[in-house]
Amino acid sequence: MEQVWIILGAIFIASALNIVLRRFDFPTAIGYIFTGIIVAEFFHLNVHNSTILEHVAEFGIVLLMFTIGLEFSFQELKVMKKEVFVYGLLQVGITGWILAIIAMLLGFDVKSAIIIGFALALSSTAIVLKILNENGDIHSSYGRKALGILLFQDIAVIPLLLIIEIFTKDVSLTSLLLQTLLNMFLFFALLLFLGKFVIDRFLRYAINTKNQEIFLLATFFIIFLSAELSYFFGFSYSLGAFFAGMLLAESHYKYQVEADLAPFRDLLLGIFFFSVGNRIELASVLENLGTILSLVIAIMLLKAIIIYLILIWSEQKRTAFKTALSLAQIGEFALALFVLATTNGFISDQVAQILSTAVIISMIATPFILKNLKTLADKLFKEPVRELKIESTGFNNHIIVCGYGPLGKDICQDLKARGFDYVVIEHDLLLYEQGVENNEPIFFGNAAQRAVLESLDLKNACAVVITFHNLEKIRLVTQSVLDLAPHAHIVARVRDEKEAQALQNLHIKSLVITTKTLSKEMIEQLFYCRL
């Protein structure tokens, strides 16, 4: 019973802390970390004593890697190849090796120094992209540079996980690399085979049930199967989840899968961040506070300088400065790498404490830096050139058609004939397949889910057309649209005046009443004279 009270206390502390911290624009990750520290300090509950909690926390990283794989669009990489493969590669490579050399000079052995250096080279994808998306800077010039570098960092996590595994094996590097490449080939070949002949059909059968719970269970099965296969071939669970996400990235189910998984991913990531905070010992932090603060300032300053110097050759000084500051922090994946490094004996618990605390402080500082980024740039760079706004690589100035029934098909045909850009979202598998056969830009998903609407660039859409009859579904979709884009132009249809009154509080700009429109058309046909 005591453990139940501790769990209740932890949930209450996490909720109360995040409510307070959200007033100051802090990400929820910080609240979970502080909760872990408080629980460890006052309730004397440490994650090292809970194997179950460690496994649950690890599943948070698994789902995060899956969703990263899910967003790993090859089309986006083509457009952003310079940002990803030039700026990203240079940032990770130069920063990682410089920090690794510094670690060696401080007395760490080569393997430990490489792990520490490249872990510190990573930035926080979760915090930076969330804030950039919220303040509308994700499509600005510096926002695109930051996104490209972060995307490469996410890719770089995979070889970093492999490096730790390679370092733990007591065999020659050459034979281990050959064995690793063979295992990678076998694992990837098996996953491709399953993706082509098993996974797609399995998901199709799940969708045919028209039950969201079954579809979600099927998705979880695919993720954990891929993770377990990866572990069987000697790799991490995260690697398998990443490849599983890539398999589904090109499918039309991706938006629905992402929307369904988001609450679970965020909750499990919360447990991961809680477990990170749970490992922090306040006594050790206070004892090494000067070292930790010096480390944070030195690493963030070094990372910012390196990124600025990489970008200054081909970008405006203002853009380079804003990108450098936005990526100066150390990311959440560094915490996971430090945990693995400690478990495998590459770094001591005390070093892990100092490094993990430095990561956490840098993450806490990030919202304040991003919030004052424009002010700082204005003071240092008085450039007359306005920062260029870059259009999204996705949809823009398009029409979102919700539903591909008879009315939806007619609307699509008319939009196509008029040359308008549009995208269709459909939750019925048969209708979705008809749209695919007709070469429509159609995606499988629930239009009432905000994550699905965000994926279709709702904020950049010029209109949303709701074609189905169900009054409750119209209400749900409309509410989701208005929550994300309060001034969105929504066109919907209802059967009669009674249904129109039921939706009156939603302030739909264009509400088509079927009976009125039909009666007008019938009257026109009635009195139309044919000679």
Walkthrough of the structure:
This protein has 531 residues and is mainly alpha-helical. It has 2 domains: 60-251 and 291-380, Na+/H+ antiporter like fold (Up-down Bundle); 399-526, Rossmann fold (3-Layer(aba) Sandwich), CATH 3.40.50. The chain has helices at residues 2-22, 28-42, 51-70, 74-79, 81-105, 110-120, 125-134, 141-168, 173-208, 212-232, 237-249, 254-278, 282-287, 289-311, 317-326, 332-343, 349-371, 373-380, 406-418, 429-437, 450-455, 471-484, 497-502, 514-526; strands at residues 399-402, 422-426, 442-444, 463-466, 490-494, 510-513. The protein starts with a helix and ends in a 5-residue tail after the last helix. The relative contact order is 0.10. Mean pLDDT is 81; it is low at 383-393.
Percentage of β-strand residues: under 5%
CATH architecture designation of the largest domain: Up-down Bundle
How many domains, in number, for the residues?
2
CATH class of the largest domain: Mainly Alpha
Which oligomeric state applies? single chain
Residue stretches low in confidence (pLDDT < 50, at least 5 long) are 383-393
- CA-based shape: globular
Question: Residue share in helices?
Answer: over 70%
Describe the largest sheet: 6 strands, parallel
- In terms of structural class, how would the helical and strand content be classed? mainly alpha
- Beta strands, count: 6
**Which fold does the CATH topology of the largest domain refer to?**
Na+/H+ antiporter like fold
Rg for CA atoms: 26 Å
Number of helices: 24
Mean of residue pLDDT? 81
In the sheet with the most strands, the strands line up as 3-2-1-4-5-6
What is the distance, rounded to the nearest whole angstrom, between the alpha carbons of the first and last residues? 89 Å
N-to-C SSE series? Answer: HHHHHHHHHHHHHHHHHHEHEHEHEHEHEH
